[in-house]
Design a protein that fits this description.
globular; 20 helices; about 0% strand; mainly alpha; 2 domains; Growth Hormone, Chain: A
């Protein structure tokens, strides 16, 4: 029987069992995903003698510019498929191919087979995303939806924080392939949760067919102002996706994290923990997710009454400064400072972007526009993977000038700011620009 009962309260006890089930699914799926992504680009280019696969950075850029856009593009179709065929069936399919993709990646070492395995993972993840959001929207009400989606976003960052921090350092110490096996188990066991605990939520009274979904794409793309806004904003996400590629390569090749290790181990010893903790590639994701967990509510409270577009510009400026800081020095604390400031910019800009999309969308098409607003991720990751790899090979591997790499990306950030300032002056609705 479909899960339809909801408490009319607004606290934690107001949520249904189905709600907490999908929160648990989200935590394990995102934890598995970010656990893998926190080190994937390093593993793929690492010498085979060190346990990696020895691919070229350019070829890894092609992989990343293919699989990551799928995560943002597939939800357009999978939401309609879930409404038509059922959420449980979609989750069953998504977890099956996602877990299979992770597991096969742990087995293969040839470029083509690894590429295909990661494509399976990406397709599963892309099909999974809208089902969880759709379930939450149907398992909450107007009294508790704000808190419900807040917990949802926290679960994403909590998974992105805990898995790379705890599991990845231990597993890669045994074998890099264990990281993918962990992700296969982390997503595969969700099949049991889907079969025995999850219940099909009440279907919407009307759902869109695939034909209607595709016609919606045409409708949205005719809105020049909206498309231009997405195109400009996506340039900032070219910078963001470097956190999973070029930043990891740079850390591995150039940055001596001994000063950070010394401080962290000193703090751990005061609590009775003796060990040799080391800052490595996976901790880049930990810093980003940890900063958001610690400060998102504070930042959101500070900017809650600020206009969306100027706040976006300020956030992107912060992110650009964070990227530029990386060009100043290879010192460990400079590296950490750059990551934290970039994360502050991200958490300032992105929530306001989502609210801005809702503002500029026609009153009768707000849901449609929100659905296609994620195209920033398609463009940003599609360009960012290949561009980052090419620039790294030229500036860092070739010229030994990583500072030029970060200054180039910082200039992309500056172009984003200029583009938004011009947009704000000439195209933005007056109420949004004040």
């Amino acid at each position: 029987m479909a899960s339809i009962s909801k408490s009319q309260g607004n606290g934690f006890r107001s949520f249904t069992k189905n709600y907490w089930t999908v929160i648990l699914m989200e935590f394990f799926e995102r934890g598995s995903y970010y656990g893998v992504m926190s080190v994937l680009s390093v593993y793929l280019v690492m010498n085979t003698s060190d346990g990696g696969l020895g691919f070229s950075k350019e070829s890894v850029g092609v992989i990343k510019s293919t699989i990551t856009p799928l995560l943002y593009l597939l939800p357009i179709l999978s939401g309609a498929l879930a409404d038509r065929f059922g959420y449980r069936r979609m989750l069953m399919f998504a977890f099956s191919i996602m877990s299979t993709g992770y597991f096969l990646t742990s087995l293969f070492s040839s470029y083509s087979l690894v590429f295909m395995s990661l494509l399976l993972m990406a397709v599963g993840a892309g099909l999974f995303k809208p089902v969880i959001a759709g379930t939450i929207s149907r398992e909450t009400n107007e009294n508790n939806s704000g808190l419900g989606f807040g917990i949802f976003y926290w679960s994403i960052n909590l998974g992105a924080f805990i898995f790379p921090l705890i599991f990845i350092p231990y597993l890669k110490g045994i074998s890099w392939s264990y990281i993918f096996i962990m992700a296969a188990i982390g997503t595969g066991w969700l099949l049991l949760l889907n079969i025995f605990v999850y219940t099909e939520p009440r279907r919407p009274e009307s759902s869109k067919s695939l034909k209607e979904v595709l016609s919606g794409i045409v409708l949205v793309l005719k809105d020049f102002r909206f498309v231009l806004m997405i195109a400009i904003y996506s340039m900032f996400w070219i910078l963001y996706f470097q956190m999973f590629d070029t930043v990891l390569w740079y850390l591995t090749d150039y940055v001596d994290m001994t000063p950070v290790n010394r401080v962290v181990n000193g703090l751990l010893s005061t609590f009775g923990f003796q060990g040799q903790w080391k800052f490595e590639a996976e901790h880049v994701t930990v810093i980003n997710a940890g900063t958001i967990i610690a400060l998102q509510l504070v930042i959101s409270n500070i900017v809650k009454n600020k206009k969306a577009l100027p706040t976006m510009i300020f956030g992107i400026a912060l992110g650009t400064i964070g990227m530029a800081i990386l060009s100043l020095s290879m010192h460990a604390w400079v590296f950490v400072a750059g990551l934290i400031i970039f994360s502050l910019g991200e958490m300032t800009a992105h929530p306001k972007f989502l609210s801005y999309v809702a503002f500029i969308a026609p009153a009768d098409k707000k849901a449609l526009y929100q659905g296609y607003s994620f195209l920033y991720g398609v463009i940003g990751s599609g360009v960012g993977g290949i561009l980052g790899a090419l620039l790294y090979v030229r500036f860092v591997d070739g010229w030994k000038r990583p500072d030029l790499l970060w200054l180039t990306f910082s200039m992309i950030g500056v172009l984003t700011i200029i583009g938004l300032l011009l947009y704000n002056k000439y195209l933005a609705p007056k109420a949004a620009s004040r």
